[in-house]
Amino acid sequence: MKACKGWHLATIGALMMATSVGTQAAEISFLTHWGPDTVALLDAAIDKYEAANAGDTITVRAVPFGDLLTTLRTSGGGAGGATIAGIYDAWLPDLVRDSLVSAAPEAVASDTTTNWPTGVVSAASVGGSLYGIPNEIDVYALNYNKRLFEEAGIAEAPKTWDEFLAAAEKLTDASKGQQGFGLINSWAAGVLHPFASLLVSNGGDLIVDGKPVLDSQAAKETFELYEKLITSGFSDPAMATADANTTGPFLDNFVSGKTGMIIMANWWESALKAGMGDAFTDIATAPIPVGPSGDTARSISYSWMTVVNAQAAPEEQEAAWKFLSWLNGPDSGENGASAMGDILMSMGILPSRTSDVAAFGDRLSSDPFLLGYTQTLSDAKPFPVVLGGQEFSESLQQTLEALQFGQVTAADAQANAQADATEILERNAK
User: Which residues contact 140 (CB under 8 A, 6 or more apart)?
Assistant: First the structure.
């Protein structure tokens, strides 16, 4: 253990030297979508860093998630834009293609490759080059209201789609304005990720080797599952509106006990706690039910990373990588965790650095809400990171929303989704 720590300190020293030689004090800006409480934690970490790195100043700018990519592409993409930005991994190929993000220095890439899981490093890389330092990893699980389950006579979380549909039927009570399962609309990731998680738990995929496979039997069954939830009245699209901050009827109906089950990511624990107070103890999590073509409970996973603006001045880029190496390193936080790990865990978000996972091991294994997520993490399938990924996501969102509102059948939705995805991915690959 001592030898390992000594190696790490030597590595951090090399990173600091590699990014500081010949570098003068720099002014760095950090673009994020985090809320005020989380930004306050980031500011506290920055204060600690600045105290040890005289002259370097780092300012944080926060925008809503829905504005993050647009801001990054406009004001954030120029020489006067943000030096550092937190981004969703699906955006990376397009940002690299458009020369908006910088490849990591060799020392940073080596440290990241050593200290993060291979799949997470892959999501932060394009063409074999690392472009960002990963931070959070998110997976999906079934969230359910234990009180409503007990009232409906349901003994345990459903493990199969048949059990899932049976539970949704028992939990649906139109006289109480209560739905069995809550879908999401009006928010691309919120619409797509639960669908994708059910798809992979049914043995399917969205994209394989850069080509869409939404014409598979597993996908057919997943579209049909959505159709049955709607036509049977187990899910009401009028109760489903949400945005990336989870505000709106989707959250309100689950918080108030009007929705029995949902599929959602681990990061929304803080929103549930804030909305439910003491009633949060009614909520439990479980792995995604397995479909008829599936063999084990699975979820999709996706990650976030911090990247550096390729248009920023060279001295700003060097200072930015130096700061990010410190922020994500095990000497910046408490008890062997990184400062970034501390920030993520404050939101109930799973950190991805292996030493952070070890540092928070007791909490990750004992937190009853996170249990449904940690149980499925090893079997999760990464959400495909491809050129045109955001356009693909928004197109599939529109198709799934048309299915929710009864504008297309499951068969038409599947055919439309495959045709649209093929056109989008082929066009962006040119």
Answer: 193, 194, 197, 263, 264, 265, 288, 299, 300, 373
Name which of 243, 242, 305, 266 is nearest 91 in CA terms: 305
Domain CATH for 263? 3.40.190.10
Of the three residues 366, 397, 413, the one that is the final residue of a domain is: 366
* Tokens standing for residue 278: 């003491």
Cα separations in angstroms, 1 against 7, 14, 326, 334: 10, 20, 20, 18
pLDDT, tens only, 369-386: 988 888 888 888 989 889
Q: Domain tally for the chain?
A: 2
Separation of alpha carbons 72 and 81, rounded Å:
8
The per-residue pLDDT for 77 is 56
Question: Which residue is associated with the tokens 């990591």?
Answer: 104
Burial of 1 (0-12, 13-18, 19+ CB in 10 A): exposed
Q: Examine the domain organization and report whether 133 and 159 are in the same domain.
A: no
Residue 13 scores a pLDDT above 70: no
Same domain, yes or no, for 294 and 181?
Answer: yes
52-72 pLDDT, tens digit per residue, is 998 899 999 999 988 999 998
| CB 393 within 8 Å of CB 417 | no
- Shared domain for 64 and 91, answered yes or no, is yes
